[in-house]
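Duplicate of earlier report; Beta-lactamase input re-posted below.
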Amino acid sequence: MRIVRQTALLAGAVTALTTCMSVFDVSLSSSVNGSGKNNIEREKSSSLASSQANIVRQVVLDGMADGHLKAVIVRVTVDGKEILTEAFGESMSGVKATTDMHFRNGAVAISYVSTLLLQLVDEKKVSLNDKVAKWLPHLPHSDRVTLGQLAQMTSGYADYVQNPAFVTAFYAQPFRTWTPEELISFGTSQPLLYTPGTNWNYSHTNYVLLGLALEKITGKPVKTLMQEKVLGPLGLTNTTDPESPFIPEPALHAFSSERRSFLKIPTNTPFYEESTYWNPSWTLTRGAIQTTNIYDLHDTAIAIGTGKLLSPESYQAMVSTNLRGKTTTLPGCNTCFPQSLGYTYGLGIVITGNWLIQNPLFGGYSAVAAYLPSEKIAIAIAVTYDQSAFDQNGDYKNAAEILFRRIGGKLAPHDPPPVKKQ
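Output:
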């Protein structure tokens, strides 16, 4: 019995060892195969990213040649993975553009201001339907206009940038500091363009007013609100309102010919001046007149594009396309036009196709912060211009937006941003 038992135990041990070896072989084989598959997937992903980087790079190079651009800084990611972050061209003659350079973000900050408003809605402190008169009672027509209408630019207030008196004053003194009250007076010196809520027009007046209302609602300056509720939570450490024309170093320098007509310079006379430190105080509400860099611009595209700081309800309100089919052109209003698939204004953001963007253009700078939620594609671009980019009147195109639409079309061929007629 003892011998039999030992034999049985030995047989069991051999069986167990054989089974263990077999399991180990299978496990090892699976591990090797799995590792191999992972390596293959990583190689494919790396190869795709490299291919996409080359595509983006070529789009930029072609765009620089076609658009006569001085510098382009671009950052593109897909689902958080970097495709390309690169600077092209020169900031100034002999000074290469770099990815750490700072520039003005203009209308990108509009999406921050609308986010502040929607956060207050989420906190039940205000409603989008609240009349502006509650906080700005002396403002003309404030008893007819709501906070939501300011944010969506359906208030009917005229754009002070379209006021000839303002244009003359600005071009005469581009370094002048403007107060919100001065800007508002240009925008409210004429009757409402239409009954509030019945049409749409791009109007800087709306967001200067909205900034003042936010300060009254909260008892805090917009700059403080911005840091506490937007820039700080998002970690945008390179985005700030310096409260002056200052741009932190290293600065991307800009040049412009847009004062040519105002200064009555003949078309055959070369004219191209530095506009880097033109005072941007006219562009937006105080506290939101900012500088940034390409990394923060990119991170903004994702944060705003995903509604990171908002409730689902407020995010849906921000990206709503409810204006499509409800707005028209209007005699005497250069910025009134039908909202369409190519351009629909939400609450502080533009919806073009399924992309969410902001696209500032002023003072020799243009930029784009863009996000496609379905593909998690983020595109950030900053542009400056060579002299030949300006026409005989000193006008120029938003080259950053042109580049964005080309890049977006390459990276998301099944969901490209609509191509605008040039």
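Confidence is low (pLDDT under 50) at residues 1-32.

Merging into the original ticket.
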